[in-house]
Give the backbone structure.
Amino acid sequence: MSGLRLLVSLAGAFTIAKLLDENRRLRMELDGRIAREAALDEKAKRGLGGERHAGTEAMRYPPRQWDEVDEAADESFPASDPPAFTARSTT
């Protein structure tokens, strides 16, 4: 009978240890997720996301030449489709 009691006690201790380990792992995961979200919020507040308004006035180093095709491409970014302009001359 004492062998059975020992076995039940060991099984209970093992189960409690596994539950505590899982609780610790989930808390660490949650803390990491909260820290990442806070960092992303701070990054967005400081404007470090890489966003800018379209056009040369918002560029750090604007190009010397800028035409309507460049403007349309800049305004459409990051769209997957390029603007619908063709390479024809306007005279």
